[in-house]
Amino acid sequence: MTALDVIRRPEYTGARRCWPCTVVNVVLVLAASVAVYVADFPIVAGVVAVLGLLGVWARGYVVPYTPRFAPRLANALGVGGTFGHDEGPPERELGGSLGGEADPDAVVDTLLQAGVLAEDAEGLYMTDEFRTRWRDAMGPLQEATLDELAEAVMGVRMDADVRAERNERGEYVVVASHDGNRLHDAWLTRPVVIAEVAGVNALAGSGLTREAQLLAVEPLRSFLAECPDCGGPVEETTTVDCCGGPPGTAAEPDHVLACTDCDSLLFTFPTEE
């Protein structure tokens, strides 16, 4: 691990970078550098500028607690929810899944009995046999178009209406299903579709019913070791829509599993109450 890796904050850079906050931080760094220069410390001024700009590039910000005060500032200015962020699908996009809500303990027990997961003194882990089946099932889907992925979803969710949706923030497969008397739309990103359709296919020989397979694929995403789409490594990190929260809110970052190469969010861990 290098010194740059220590200060790097991928949750606030790359595709997750908030450009208004970046601009504000750059302006403050340059202002501080000019102030030091005017005070007749030109070498120190150069150091302040270089280190400050490097910090903004690697971390997304250098002013402490920017992700905490920026949403409140945006809301105070009356621009919360739009400040520096494009319009896109609703907030459900990060939590979408082919299956519905399930009891996590019951799902784990089912997967343990099916030999998909195993447990030792260090905790739960995915068996090598199932991980290989799952990875093999992802292969053909990685080359599929969005419309072909939507067709693949229809093959495992024949009870739902499925459509491909494209907008300025990306491409999604939308699964519309009835939850009791309420119509529920799940916005699935490309990596999620690949992981979950492949998960259902890999679970086909496990003896689980189709309903159990669909309930299991979302928790299975927490065991991903590489991105289902680009194949890049994944890491546990946090994310926050820095200035894009709804008016009157300043949400804490979610704990997520994300790809370090393409920045795709692969799983959002449940919030501890």
Automatic annotation (TrEMBL):
Q: Basic and acidic residues compositional bias: what residue ranges?
A: 84-94
Q: What UniProt keywords are attached to this protein's entry?
A: Membrane, Transmembrane, Transmembrane helix
Question: What domain of life is recorded for the organism?
Answer: Archaea
**Coiled-coil ranges (or none):** none
Q: Which InterPro entries match?
A: DUF8054_C, DUF8054_M, DUF8054_N
Spans through the membrane: 18-37, 43-62
Q: Which residues form the DUF8054 domain?
A: 5-76, 107-221, 226-269
Locate the region Disordered: 81-100
Q: Where is the signal peptide?
A: none
This chain belongs to the protein called: Restriction endonuclease
Q: What is the lineage of its organism?
A: Archaea, Methanobacteriati, Methanobacteriota, Stenosarchaea group, Halobacteria
